[in-house]
Task: structure prediction
Amino acid sequence: MKVLVAARISEEGIKKLKERYEVEIIYNPEESELVEKIKDFDGLVVRSKPKVTKKVIEAGKNLKVIGRAGVGLDNIDLEAAKERGIKVVNSPKASSESVAELVFALALALARKITKADTALRNKKWIKKELMGIELSGKTVGIIGYGRIGAHVAKIASGFGMKCIAYDVIINEELAKKYGVIYKSLEEVLKESDIITLHVPLIPQTKHMIGKEQFKIMKNTAILVNASRGGTIDEEALYDALKNNEIYGACLDVFENEPPLDSPLLKLDNIVFTQHLGASTKEAQRKAGIMIAEEIMKIL
Ligand code: NAD
Result:
């Protein structure tokens, strides 16, 4: 059988595929190129690119599986794949540790004013007196969406000596017990947490789930972290909350529109940014390559 790898995945992933299949690699082909190529292949591997359109899927006469190394499936026409009985698989577990670690990198950067200290020193300013921070130890972290990443956050938080509470629409008592997490209502989580971190998918029910009303409930010392998906937070309401010091600050890895080059949030100083880097570690990418190869093997 033949597998077409159409996006850069780890060498280990490619090696695994080559043990079983004839593998051809073309990175990020145009749609027309992919339509032409796909005819002979049984499997296709992509990342967030290239787009796997209806045209591509219809041209894949032998195609049985599309593997997305990573999480989001928005570049794949799932309806068209379903119609043709083509399985779509992904590797959502690969980046859980990396995203959870980034949550703490961001929270600490804000809590200890690391980015401010760094920028000031590069500008030859020694502003130690303005850089008083806060400790994580003894604080409460509120995890909204206690799934794969949420659980890793709880695991790390316990190492910091933090108390963990969570809100989720699905209760998994076993997973909660494992990391000493207590489920609460959304309102309780917002009210009691010193650090609130979002780990829900972006679906209609979670769009703007943190908005004007929710900021009112939070402590004015709270830190809000979002490394899930832009759109779960209402960015206009966040801007107002930060501007009016309704919360201590925010940390964003994801945005409603990426890249957010014209966002007014960029002008505020009680906020720390990264650039949708949750899964951008060597280890997460290595795992994504291996896991997607394994998923493809299960189908073929
Ligand atoms: P997961 O499916 O394991 O966990 C999501 C949790 O959210 C589940 O427990 C689910 O029950 C819960 N949930 C769903 N709807 C909810 C609602 N309305 N209210 C409360 N909880 C709700 O997913 P995961 O692997 O932990 O990923 C979480 C998020 O992180 C996703 O949005 C994913 O896209 C994102 N992510 C971001 C990056 C990044 O680069 N920043 C990388 C990987 C994943």
